[in-house]
């Protein structure tokens, strides 16, 4: 199930930021985030928020394993918006 962008706006800022950080960390396999400063991470979070707003990234809730994750819209098999 796709979580609509407007529903994400009602989340606590820290909750949404942590979800985005989890997505960002999953995109980097070599651990290079440890070398980024706080400003760079905040800039990346803002870029992800913009991508969520534009529909490039989507938040998907999996009822099967009760998990939530950010995915690129091309990586969602059954896109339901």
Automatic annotation (TrEMBL):
Gene3D superfamilies: YehU-like. It holds the Pfam family UPF0270. Transmembrane segments: none annotated. Coiled coil: none annotated. InterPro entries: UPF0270 (IPR010648), YehU-like_sf (IPR036685). Belongs to the UPF0270 family. This is YheU family protein.
